[in-house]
Structure formats: structure tokens, C-alpha cells
Amino acid sequence: MSSAMTPLQRVLTALGHQEADRVPFFLFLSLHGARELGMPLRQYFSRGENVAEAQLRMQNRYGHDCLDGFFYAPAEIEAWGGEVVWFEDGPPNSATPFLSDVRAIAGLKPPRVEETPVLVEALKAISLMKEQSSLIPILGVAISPFSLPVMQMGFEAYLQLILEQPEAFWQLMRVNEEWCVSWANAQLSAGATAIAYFDPVSSPTVIPPDLYRKTGFLVACRTLPRILGPTVTHLASGRALPILDDLAATGTAGVGVSALEDLAELKRVASGKLALLGNLNGIQMRHWTAADAEREVKQAIAKAGKGGGFILADNHGEIPWQVSEGTLSAIADTVRRWGHYPLDWIDESLT
Amino acid sequence: MNNAAWQDFEVALLAMDRIRARALLRTERLEEAVVSSLESLVIPSLEQIGIRWEAGEISLAQVYMAGRIAEELVDEFLPPMSPQRTDQPKIAIAVLEDCHALGKRIVISALRASGYELTDFGHGLTAVDLARRVKREGVQILLISVLMLHSALRVAELRKLLGDSGDCAGWLPPRLIVGGAPFLFDSRLWRDVGADAMGRNAAEAVSLVKEAVEEQK
After folding, report:
1. What is the Cα–Cα distance from A58 to A219, expressed in whole angstroms?
2. What is the CATH number of domain A7-350?
3. How many CB atoms lie within 10 A of CB B158?
4. How far apart are CA A157 and CA B203, in angstroms?
5. CATH number of the domain at B3-77, out of 1.10.1240.10, 1.10.10.10, 3.30.70.260, 3.30.70.100?
6. Nearest residue in B to A288, CA atom
7. Which of B65, B100, B149 faces A283 most closely, judged by CB atoms?
8. What are the tens digits of pLDDT across the range A82-140?
9. How far apart are CA A266 and CA A260, in angstroms?
10. How far is A91 from chain B (nearest CA, A)?
């Protein structure tokens, strides 16, 4: 295929396991938007207009194939009444978990999107981006019902809940599923093209695959069909290989994969079933030279680009604040230079 | 003690079988002194669990539960105030800036299950607050756990505040051992921030503490 596609056509072609004009690439620059506008992170995320303007500007500069509608993970916790801790050079954290007593799960009700100011701003950002560009996919983000409790109650307490209190666990899942579906669908209504279903706890890095099949998998099977648009599951740097077939069975279109796993092996197992999103090492990007960026991008394309079903991205779903504009440009330049199908250079480099 | 015993202990921990794990530890104690049974049974099994987690063979949840069970069992035989625990350099652990404390919890369990006693300084600490507390309490070995890259980079600030060479009053900076996801994804990061060592998993943290304790004796 030689004629240039729009980013939307390119991404849809890749998700359909076909070769587009070139390998699509996503730069998840949620934090970098604040730098783009010269604002502290907290001020930047206080208005949807800021986020829309910065994301559009950066897409125009780097030419990546999506607009990032993600604010920050604990924004969802604000909806539940939780608090957020801000940093000047990194993503905010959720503060002390608001669910300190498991007995409180019984009375828990899902919050309402429209009553949470930060989420209203996030919807505004998506709407504004949609108004400005209908040819670039906009990615919304929803934390999975299964992973949200890490912020609701703390990781340690949540692991104990999963392992030792199944009744309370499933009650929490029911409430969280309602929340996740309402938040994801609100983003789709506002103009998001697809939803990244962030589910790091389902990764074999965090829980064993057999436990996943009895918990996070079932939650995803119940939740994803109720999200009224395409989804891509993201494990936020966690491993995916042992559960790729299970992930495909949840109905998700793709999976964000880790730098800890071999992309060629992932592609072999996922081929035709799940598109892969990844797996550039965002932590190492901090000190990449342009030559490093070219080598890493070429290697990822060589391992997973052929046949489509691959979108180049970082492996966490958020490029760290510390990564320079020069590195981002080098990644973009390399995709434009080496990412055009049919990727004949891969065969030539092997001979 | 043969290899099979620690492997059985590892299997019992990963299966969350407290009864079997306790029986193995009790059998072992009849044969050897407490500390040597830690060396032959608990530490090798936790080391293997750490290696298997790093290789992607087992999950963080299993590492966490195995550590908690081992910690509980060893506490029965080696109580917190036992001289064998307390006659050591002052060890402390903290999460720098982040609010996520599971990694710290896992390291605490592994160290306590290995016979060490340590002070938990908590999470969400700034470099300034942590340095002040380290100096005030005379910490000799400091473990730092982080989840986020920006928190890992704060270790450089902490290193600067603690200094490299101590002061004229005889205070010496602690040995600084770091761990957590950013260090796993970038093997040079721990050196960049001025740490003395990096543990790739909780069992490696135990080995590094052991080395540091022996150096300071």
C-alpha cells in the first residue's frame, strides 16, 4: 500500500491485522502537555482546554497517530471522594486509600461522572479535540474494575481481599464495573474513538494466570461488552505472554505489552488475534540518544511490524516527563523513515 | 539439610500452605540453630522465589504472600526483640515520595523472615525529611523503595543530603540500597542517582543487606 492514509485509517487497518501505509505510532504525552504550555501539572489538568490545545499541538509536531485523552489515573479516585498527591515532574498519586474498612464495600455506590469536576474537564478535552480533528483517533482511558481497588484500598489490602474475602471482592467488582462502564461510555459519547482499558493487576507480573482466569478475566468479560466502542487492554508495563489468549477472549482488540517480554514472541502468539501496542522502554528513553531511538524503534518494527496488528508505543502508556523533545522527535523520524510497508528492509537486513 | 527441604519450603510458601511450611521449619530447627536454619531453608527459598518472579514465572501476589507467611513463621522462632535480630547495624526502609508501599512491604517481610530487624519509616517521604530522620536515628543501612521514575530520581537529592563521607562528629552516611520498578527497567539508573547498590527483588535486597552488615561488623 503506497498512498498516505489518515491516522484513523492507519490505526484501524493495524487493528484489523492488515498492513497500512506505515506502522502507526502513539506517543502518550499526557504529562508533556503541561510542559508544552509552560504550566505546572496541576494547573494544566484543571482545564480541558489546556489538554486539548497541548495534545493537538504535540500531535502536529510529532505526527503520531492518536490524541491522548488521558489525564491521570487518580482522577477516577477523585470521583470516589479520594485525594490526589501532586508532584512537579511526575504523575500524581492517589493519597491515602478511602476504603480502609472492607465492611464499607457493602454500602458503596458508583459515583456520577458529571459530579466530578476533573472528569468533566477530561470530557471537555475529548470534545474539543474531536471538534478540531476527526481524522485522528482519540484514545480515552478507563481503569479496569479489577485494577481500580489498588487506589481505592491500597495494594496490600486489595491482594488480601482477592485471596481471602471473595464475597466482598465480588461485591466491589460489581460496583466498579458500573463505574467503569459509565466512565468509558461518557468518553466515547464525548468523542473518544476507543478506550484503553487499563488493567495492570491482571498481568502475570502481579497475579498468577490461574487466579486471573477466576477474577480479572471474568470481570473483563462482563465489562468490555458493555463499553460501546473498541477497547485495547493495557497492562502498564506488566507481562502479557501467558494470558494473551485469555485477553483475546475478553473481546479486546489489542494489548499494551511490556519491554520485559520479547516482541517477536508476543507477535507470534498474538498474530491475528490481538493487535500489539508497545513496547519501547519509557524509563530508558530518559537517556536515549537519537541513535538509541533509531535502533530501538527499528528493532520493534522488525520484530512486530510485518502483517499489521502492531502499533508502536512506549510500554507503559505514559512517556515520562523526563524524556526530551529531541528523543520524541527521533522516535517519530525513525518511524517515518523505516516504518513504511512493506518493510522490505527487514528481510534485506537478515540476508 | 538437603536441597529438597528448601524446595519443599518454597512450594509450601507459594501454595500458601502455612501448616506445611511451619512443619518444615520446625523439623529444621530441631537439627540446627535458628540462624543457620534461616540460611539453609528460608533464605534459599526466598532467593528462588525472587529469581522466579524476575523471570516472569511467578507473580507479585505470590511473592507477597510467600514473604508474609515466612515472616510470620520465623517470628514464632525468632521474636522481634531477640538479640540475634537486634545485635545488628541500624537498618531502615522507606518509600521515597510515592504513596505505593507494596514493594516496601515485600522487602520488610523478606528481611524479617531472614532474621533481620528494621525500622519502617513509611511512604510518601521527601528526600529532606528522610535525610533528617536517617541522621537523627543513626541509620547505617537504608533501603529505598520506589514505583515511579521521578521518585527514583529523588534518590540523587537524598544522596547529596546524606553526603559521601560523613562529618567531623563521627557520623557516617548509610549504605544506600535501592529497588523498585524504574530500576528494573533501566539497569544504569541506580548508579545515575548515586545509590550504593540495587536489589532486583526482595531476596537480592536481603543479600545486599547481609553484605552490608558483614562490612560494618
Report:
1. 35
2. 3.20.20.210
3. 24
4. 22
5. 1.10.1240.10
6. B186
7. B149
8. 999 999 999 999 998 999 999 999 999 999 999 999 999 999 999 999 999 999 999 99
9. 11
10. 8
